[in-house]
Amino acid sequence: MDLEAYADVHRDRWQELDRLARRRHRSGADVDALVSAYQEAATDLARIRGAAPRTATGDRLSLTLFRARLRFTGTPVDPLSAVTTFFAVQLPAALYRIRWTTIWVAIVTAAVAVVVGVWISTTPGAVDSFGTPEALRQYATQDFVDYYSDHGLGAFTAQVWTNNAYIAASMVAFGITGLFVPYAIVQNAVGLGISGAVMHSQGRLGDFFLYIAPHGQLELYSIFLAAAAGLMIAWSWVAPGPRTRAQALAEDGRALITVAVGLTLTLLLSGLVEGVVTRQPWPWPVKIGIGTVALAVVLVYQWVVGGRAHRAGERGDLEEFERGATALTAG
What is the pLDDT of residues 173-192, one digit of tens each? Predict the structure, then answer.
């Protein structure tokens, strides 16, 4: 079946069904037309599913049918149940799908950061190219540490969260280009290597790791997750398998964009650790331990909860969550 041609022939009828389903006040004739259009569209969806189980066209028609069914069955999806399903099943399943890519992104980032840091530290004159001796000393002895306490707790946490969430969302959204994510990964790794080398040149490498460790564990892992999602979206159209490239991109993009939603929460948690915990005069083992626990919670959520959902057949897309949102607005 040529799905595009089939959709072109029946699109007007599907749009009429959608219009009737969205209308708040209907006459008896409208109700009859709604039921008739629903039956015809359900037949169309069965034919589409028979030709290709998952397509963007089929998903849109399924949502239209769902909205129409709410109008004459009065059995909406419980929004609370949809939200619960999203966080208990769909999000961890989406995170589980990118687990190994996440690990590889982490390995590459660490390798590039170490190579850059060692090269700058061992190459005569390399550190000096990043500033005057006084500027480097100022950065290592004051600026790096004061960064975590110069601003108010709430404002600093919000700033960190907003900045990191923007970077993570950009990696997922622009992953399709195939170039943005590798560029962002390398840029982030180089920045870490340079900072480490500058701190080392001033005898403050210990401060570098101490101040990054509490929040950096979860913050960096969240960025790795975002990069992994972006890379897999790019790979879906590079190597779509038996699917068309458009179909593969629609299906995998729909599933992996779920990760961007989850990352706003993991980055909020890391932002709280950075804004609240790092500046406290507590022993470093306590502060680093809090960051480690935060990372452990996310790892269990991804690998254990996500693994269980994945084995149950969950792909991690937003379909049920979208239906729950539709139920809120359909009445």
Answer: 788 888 999 999 999 999 99
CA nearest 315: which of 94, 52, 55? 94
Nearest Cα to 168, choosing from 110, 214, 218? 218
Q: Read off φ and ψ for residue 115, nearest 5 degrees.
A: -60, -45
Task: Confirm if 22 and 2 have CB atoms less than 8 A apart.
Answer: no
Of the candidates 178, 261, 278, which has an alpha carbon nearest to the alpha carbon of residue 225?
261
Question: Is pLDDT larger for residue 293 or for residue 8?
Answer: 293
For the record, the structure tokens of 291 come out as 């960051």
| 216-251: pLDDT as tens digits | 999 999 999 999 999 988 888 788 777 677 777 776
Please give the structure tokens belonging to residue 200.
Answer: 């080392």
**Which one, of 4, 9, 10, lies nearest residue 64 by Cα?**
10
